[in-house]
Amino acid sequence: MTAKSTRSGAGAFIAGLFRYQIMIPLAALLLLTVFNLILDPSFFSVSLAHNAAGNPVLNGNLISIIDNGSELAILAIGMTFVTAASGGQDISVGAGIAISGSVILRILCGTNPSPDSMQAPIIAAFLVGCLAAMACGAFNGALVAYFRLQPMVATLILFTAGRSIAAWVNNNQLPVVKEAEFTYFGGFIPGIPIPTPFLIALVCFAVTWAVLKFTNLGLYVQSVGINEKTSRLNGLNPALIKLGVYVILGLCVGVCGLIKVSRISSINYSVIAKDIEMDAILAVALGGNALSGGKFSMSASVLGAYVLQFLTTTLYKLNVQSTAISAYKAVVVIILVVCSAPAVREKLTRLTKKLRAGNASGSAA
Amino acid sequence: MTVTGKPRGLLRNISDTNLLTSITVIVFLVMYLFAIFGLGEGFTKPQTLFNIMNANAALIILSCGLTLVMINGGIDISVGGVTALVGMCCAVHLDYHGGNVFTALLIALGIGLAFGLVQGYLIAYLEIQPFIVTLAGMFFARGMTTIVHNDPFNVEHKGFQALKDTRINVPGMGTYNRHGAYIDAYVEIGVIVALVIVVLMFLMLKWTRTGRSFYAVGGSRQSALMLGINVRRTTFLAHLLCGLLAGIGGFVYFMHVGSGSPSHASGEEMNAIASSIIGGTMLTGGVGNVIGTLFGVLALSLIKTIVSSIGLDQAWWKDITVAAMLCIFLVIQSITIAVRKRISASAVQKKSG
Fold first, then answer.
1. Domain map (residue ranges) of chain A
2. How far apart are CA A178 and CA A344, in angstroms?
3. Is A139 on the interface with B (CB under 8 A)?
4. Which of A148, B140, B215, B288 has a 20 to 30 Å separation from B242 between CA atoms?
5. CA B237, B242, B248, B251 torsion: positive or negative?
6. How far apart are the two ends of chain A, measured CA to CA in Å?
7. How far is the alpha carbon of A318 from chain B, nearest alpha carbon, in Å?
8. Which residue has the higher pLDDT, B241 or B324?
9. Strand A47-50 versus strand A56-59 pairing type
10. Inter-chain residue contact A156 with B270, CB threshold 8 Å
11. Distance between CA atoms of residues B124 and B128, nearest Å
């Protein structure tokens, strides 16, 4: 009797835990961690080494996860807002990164594709890059908010044209920035052993947290996503809020653009940030957010992004070809969404109830 | 078709689907006339049109599948991946496993059907968002393609080569070349397959109960349910058919290019979605038509041909024009629908007032 009550107590506890949205990516994270611990505990070792420039840097799989997952996490912030407010996803973020990266390099290099010194301060280039990305976001947002297009369709336009526009900005040349200063944003700042992208991501998280904590943006976004008509009757301007979230996503895209071009000090228009839009949407879905809009959990999305990167790194560790990774990712995603699908959950609860009832009648007999 | 006479009455009597389709057809014809009179020479030959069709037969088939799913209110972005997977599997089967063309076709249909079944079940019966399911489907198909075989290669199989090079002459459409010799106009087998599929799909959507129920479910799930339509079964069927068409489209694509490669058909799903939208299908569901889709595909590739033939041959112009065209069409659609809504709303007000 006592055993049974504790079991149902534990069951209720677990069921209660899963009411928190962040439990979905946390459970996935736990699963991956245990899997890696069993397979090879050295996966988690972190060591301090020196890079080519003689600066101390941290090394290890965990560091590579927080390093490479940072762009995804920054994008996940904007994508969560967009998903929540407009009930759709922006598939042009990869193209947007190409555009902003191309603009940044254009400003830094001028007309000469490989100048000996930078033609403009990095901060100026970064700001112009962000403006370009925000303009793209505003274009998408205007189509969604004022022309009432489906977000996926509206962003399909820039998805098609974005990489071509990026090539056009630099006249199809591949500018190279030679100065080491520029590599700091995608690598390491001398003296700081933590990868800079992660630091940038932390700043973004802090800003987002503050915005959500001290302004009503989160509430407004959710109410527009849940019911546009009601929020208009309550005095909100849904179109403006939708436009706003796309501009916010544009800002995130601009930051990612800087990190991406800084990583290689150059750009490859057709390859840069390829398929990152799909990963960003997956991160939002992994965070347990409804892709049809409404309520959202920002921390769950961000965690989802890092879990996705964790999965990718784990697969690399298992010697999976980089091109074949997507197949495994797809399987994991399908398992996750099937497990979290309401229809499946309902069936499971009904099954457990039936089992419990069977147990109870058995013990009574 | 001028609408200057009685625009209100004409516009009110025509359905959304037919209006959007006729816009597409008119734009296509205007563009073609512009090409004939403005650019001359090449465009007066019927073969130019047939070449566009030869190159896009697979896209027409894929777009038909997408149109169906979009009418039903869903989306499928796995078709490009399935196309690549089908091509690679058939290529490996023919060249390394000594298969013949018939079994290769069976493999293609099987792969398409499998994707349709699984995705359809997840979307219709487990109620997972179509975008996520087919996104995973796309990832899976692309990944599997490289697992099956990592490098691109040309198929050497004799029977397949014969099939690939089969040309069907179109009587009366040929032209005389500079030396006065008559050159027949031809299409590939894929074009015939694509046209047959378009006709079949058109008949099904127009005249069968199943076909009509796709529109009903896409227009409003709730109302469809109340009408006694099996919404889940209809959704399942839409995705199943889309998967099957992706399989057929994959084989036609494979027949056209004659090689297997992981990078084949990359971005084809977005081309297919764009063609469907230009053809007048709305992603919100309930509106669309495969004839429009056919013209959507043709218009899309015609504009690419025109852009490269007027001298804007830098690689980026193609994408930018396609995107601009998509943008214009979307805005036209959005405005048309909004204006019509306002007209019908004011009509209702007048009646009641």
1. 19-319
2. 55
3. no
4. A148
5. negative
6. 14
7. 15
8. B241
9. antiparallel
10. yes
11. 8
Inter-chain residue contact B122 with A168, CB threshold 8 Å: no
Q: What is the mean pLDDT of chain A?
A: 85
Which among B131, B314, B323 is the nearest to A291, CB-wise? B131
Fold of domain B7-352: ABC transporter involved in vitamin B12 uptake, BtuC (1.10.3470)
Cβ contact A333:B132 at 8 Å = yes
Low-confidence residues of chain A: pLDDT under 70: 1-20, 53, 340, 360-365
Evaluated on CA atoms B303, B305, B309, B315, the torsion sign reads: positive
Neighbours of A51 (CB within 10 A): 13
pLDDT in tens, A323-352: 788 888 888 778 877 876 777 777 778 888
Six-digit token string for A106: 């254009």
Please count the residues of chain B.
Answer: 353
- Can you give the pTM of this predicted structure? 0.82
pLDDT in tens, A181-224: 888 888 888 878 888 999 999 999 999 999 999 999 999 999 99
Q: Which residues of B touch A341 (CB under 8 A)?
A: 126-128
How far, in Å, CA of B196 to CA of A200, rounded? 55
- Give the chain A residue whose CA is nearest to the CA of B150: A323
* Distance between CA atoms of residues B197 and B200, nearest Å: 5
Rounded-to-integer distance, Cα B256 and Cα B249, Å: 10
Q: Which residues of A touch B314 (CB under 8 A)?
A: 168, 172
For domain A19-319, give the fold.
ABC transporter involved in vitamin B12 uptake, BtuC (1.10.3470)
The pLDDT value recorded for residue A210 is 94
Count of other CB atoms within 10 angstroms of residue B257: 19
pLDDT at site A14: 59
Q: What is the pLDDT of residue A131?
A: 95
C-beta of residue B186 within 8 angstroms of C-beta of residue B168 = yes
Name the minimum distance, in Å, from the CA of B211 to any CA of chain A: 24
Instruction: Give A60-121 as a DSSP string.
Output: SHHHHHHHHHHHHHHHHHHHHHHHHHHSS----HHHHHHHHHHHHHHHHHTTSSS-SS-SS-
**Cβ neighbours for B120, distance < 8 A, ≥ 6 positions apart:** B235, B236, B237, B238, B239, B240, B243
Asked if residues B62 and B83 have their Cβ atoms less than 8 Å apart, the reply is yes
- Cβ B320–A329 below 8 Å, yes or no? no
B320 closest CB neighbour out of A164, A292, A344: A164
Q: Smallest Cα–Cα separation from A299: which of A291, A289, A313, A308?
A: A289
| Phi-psi label, residue B149: left if phi above 0, alpha if psi -120 to 50, beta otherwise | beta
DSSP one-letter string for B83-119? HHHHHHHHHHHHHHS---HHHHHHHHHHHHHHHHHHH
Task: Name the DSSP letter for residue B153.
Answer: E
Above pLDDT 70, what percent of chain B? 93
A194–B contact, CB cutoff 8 A: no
Amino acid at A296: F
- Annotate A177-207 with b (16+ C-beta within 10 A) or e (fewer): beeeebbebbbbeeeebebbbbbbbeebbee
CB A280 within 8 A of CB A76: yes
CB-CB under 8 Å, A343 with B127:
yes
Closest CA to B295 of B32, B93, B118: B32
Strand ranges, E, within chain B: 153-154, 167-176, 182-188, 259-260
